[in-house]
């Protein structure tokens, strides 16, 4: 399925969006393009990855289990009375709970909208929970806005739920049903439920240590620093500085920090000192020390936690804590090295473990959708019943690699023969 096909559909289709009938929204068109690029079949169905025993064990240990009483209290009666479904998925789009009106539950089984099935955008196309996770904000998807034909009789609204301490995406909460949900109030409602779930997790979680800093930088271009009860969203350059200082608690000299931060060797120390001065004004004078540059107190960085779990052999825990590449848009040489090293170590551990669930979490993520090494490992590990879509995706990736290699070998117009 070509991008041209999706573009043509986006330009000509008319769908009943949340604000009334009109042209396809840019958010939906972008999601269709991502779905097509992931080779999602418009006529396919979501894949069930966890059986009852696996699902029960996974749900019991998932952080969102602690928020389910609040989610059910706020959504349960609304879903049942309105003949809707409430659903909660993990950060990979795998459904953990799907509950609600019995008749609607039976109907939803026809498209595998069930607990244990993966509804990430890369696996199931445009849908509210999957797309909300892809863009990390509340999303409503109405009828024909869905990518897959079997889902177009449904309307859904979903909002991501974040870890209140680190900001990491834990999953999403969703309301799914018929056309009565095609109203902006549905989106506001599910967003309020997600915020309530985060508040519940904050109440149940451990109190933050006053002298401990928390740094969340995986899967986000702008890191979030937790310090003294504050959550500070950092600029991209300040994010890079904090990541490098968190990685080197003993401190970094000014000239070395300059080398780690800037590709352009002509950048002067004056530029770095100005950035550090702005960062110190943002954080407060006590948090950022100099000579060498370092952070006061212990720093709990999410990327360091993944590294520690890998070092101890806890591959499942490491994969669960990996929310995406470290500052993915950063070109700072020191950050690029840290990002690539962590991703390479985790990928190697997943391939070595050969667990189909862990491999699928990586392969169906936004950062793993083109990772041919992991897709090959998944193809070797997945049960025969789940092999066809994995094999199709792998064949597509290998064809693209082959075409790219051929193009590189083909002489250009100015190449001597």
Automatic annotation (TrEMBL):
Designated name of the protein: GAF domain-containing protein
User: Entry's InterPro entries?
Assistant: GAF, GAF-like_dom_sf, OmpR/PhoB-type_DNA-bd, WH-like_DNA-bd_sf
Q: Which UniProt keywords apply?
A: DNA-binding, Transcription, Transcription regulation
In terms of domain of life, where is this protein from? Bacteria
- Residue stretches spanning the membrane: none
Q: Where is the OmpR/PhoB-type domain?
A: 229-295
Q: Where is this region: Disordered?
A: 1-22
């Amino acid at each position: 399925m070509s991008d041209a096909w999706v573009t043509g559909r986006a330009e000509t289709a008319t769908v009943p969006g949340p604000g009334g009938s009109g042209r396809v929204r840019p958010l939906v068109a972008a999601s269709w393009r991502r779905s097509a690029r992931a080779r999602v079949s418009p006529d396919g169905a979501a894949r069930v990855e966890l059986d009852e025993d696996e699902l029960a064990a996974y749900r019991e240990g998932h952080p969102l289990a602690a928020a389910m009483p609040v989610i059910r209290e706020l959504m349960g009666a609304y879903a049942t009375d309105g003949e809707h479904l409430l659903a909660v998925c993990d950060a990979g789009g795998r459904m953990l709970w799907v509950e609600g009106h019995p008749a609607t539950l039976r109907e939803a089984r026809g498209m595998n909208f069930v607990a244990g099935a993966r509804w990430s955008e890369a696996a199931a196309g445009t849908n509210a929970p999957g797309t909300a996770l892809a863009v990390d904000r509340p999303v409503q998807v109405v009828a024909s806005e869905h990518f897959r034909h079997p889902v177009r009789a449904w309307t859904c609204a979903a909002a991501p739920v974040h870890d209140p301490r680190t900001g990491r995406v834990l999953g999403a909460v969703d309301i799914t049903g018929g056309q009565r949900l095609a109203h902006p109030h549905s989106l506001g409602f599910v967003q309020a439920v997600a915020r309530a779930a985060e508040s519940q997790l904050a109440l149940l979680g451990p109190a933050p240590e006053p002298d401990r800093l928390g740094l969340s930088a995986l899967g986000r271009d702008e890191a979030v620093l937790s310090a003294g009860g504050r959550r500070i969203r950092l600029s991209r350059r300040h994010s890079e500085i904090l990541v490098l200082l968190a990685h080197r608690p003993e401190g970094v000299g000014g000239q070395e920090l300059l080398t780690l931060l800037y590709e352009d060797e002509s950048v002067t120390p004056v530029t770095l000192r100005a950035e550090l001065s702005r960062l110190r004004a943002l954080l407060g004078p006590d948090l950022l020390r100099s000579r060498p540059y370092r952070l006061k107190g212990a720093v709990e960085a999410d990327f360091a936690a993944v590294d520690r779990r890998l070092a101890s052999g806890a591959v499942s825990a490491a994969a669960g804590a990996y929310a995406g590449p470290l500052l993915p848009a950063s070109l700072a040489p020191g950050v690029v090295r840290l990002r690539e090293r962590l991703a390479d170590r985790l990928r190697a551990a997943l391939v070595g473990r050969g667990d189909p669930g862990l491999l699928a979490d990586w392969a169906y993520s936004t950062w793993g959708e083109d990772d041919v090494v992991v897709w090959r490992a998944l193809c070797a590990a997945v049960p025969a019943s789940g092999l066809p879509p994995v094999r199709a995706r792998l064949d597509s990736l290998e064809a693209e690699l082959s075409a790219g290699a051929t193009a590189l070998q083909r002489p250009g117009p100015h190449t001597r023969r």
